[in-house]
Amino acid sequence: MRHLVVVILIALHCSTAAIAQQIVPESPPPAEAVAKALAADWLTDDERKDLRIFHGVWDSRDLDTPERAAQAALLTWSLDDPSLSDARLSAAVRADALVRRGRFQDAIALVAAESSPLGIAVRCEALAWLGKNADALAAAKSLDALLDEGGATSAADIVAASRAALVRARLEPRSTDDIQRVLNALARARTEFDRLYWPALLTEGQLLAEKHHLPAGVPALQQAIALQPRSSEAWYLLGTLAVEELDFDGSERAIKALDHIHTNHPLARLLEAQLDLRRRDPERAGTILDRLITAGSSDPRVFAFRAAAAATRFDIDGSKRWLA
Fold it and tell me: What is the rounded CA–CA span in Å between residue 49 and residue 120?
């Protein structure tokens, strides 16, 4: 019974931090810098297509290669899109999609011998989800040098190392200096490599939110959305923070934004279930989560909140089954 109480407390945790600003924006604020970048005369047609996808303003004509289609599918969480299993994609990108689907063993098999920072970061995340903490920590530590000044040669490598560092921060105690080192590296990703590199802001916001520093984490996530309005992860994170802060209107805005990105977005349904749990409607939450499971979701968060929904209804045996 004690474990069930812990599940409910984790699933329904409400931060006591006071946030002055609106957590979930009404709509992404305009990013004039993105418009200027897209209008640059020196861009080739291919560069302009890549940039439109990177900043979320693409249309179907831009998705003319497996790589471009896969990037759009990852952003919108269209995780069953055929492009994400195309053998012409890098193993790291295919594994990244598998991690989002909860297929951790398959992801690890793809990147078991991967040496790229993204491949190692994805392997680190998959290992952690499977409870292979020692292996996950070893993978994270192998990217540690990329966080030092002069250690990385691209913003993408810094973000990959920071993703792994985020896993490490969940698995073992880290000092304030350790966390600041990651934040400094993410700042360099934008100041030294690409000032419009929104994945650095997304990772920064995620790290700050997990450390309960919402007054700094929320603006980072909002800036990420301004530079990439189709970032499903940024909208979902803001929506989750809104649920925790009892900002139900904000949560609804995030759900609406996710469904605008992708009809019947899986993260919108997950967020909807979290909101129902907060509103003390475990039956409706359970129904939503059951539909996700029936549709093939293997996302551990779905099962965790399903266990919480059962526990909230005092279905002790059911909660134990979902925990298992």
Answer: 28
**Between helices 155-171 and 198-210, what is the axis angle to 10°?**
10
DSSP character string of 11-32: HT--------S-SS-SSPPP-H
d(CA 125, CA 99): 8
How far is 180 from 204, CA to CA, in rounded Å? 10
Sign of CA dihedral 65, 67, 72, 78: positive
| 217 contacts 201 by C-beta, under 8 angstroms | no
CA nearest neighbour of 167 among 204, 133, 201, 209: 133
pLDDT of residue 10: 43
Residue 43, CB half-sphere, CA atoms under 13 Å: how many? Answer: 14
Model confidence band, residue 109 (pLDDT cutoffs 50, 70, 90): very high
- Predicted TM-score (pTM) of this structure: 0.91
Neighbours of 145 (CB within 10 A): 11
CA 39, 45, 51, 52 torsion-angle sign: positive
Q: Classify residue 39 as exposed, middle or buried by CB count within 10 Å of its CB (0-12, 13-18, 19+).
A: exposed
80 Cβ contact list (under 8 Å, min separation 6): none
Question: Residues 238, 217: contact at Cβ < 8 Å?
Answer: no
User: Strand runs (DSSP E) across 46-194, as ranges?
Assistant: none
In tens, the pLDDT along 77-94 reads 999 999 999 999 999 999
Phi, psi of 321 (to 5 degrees): -65, -45
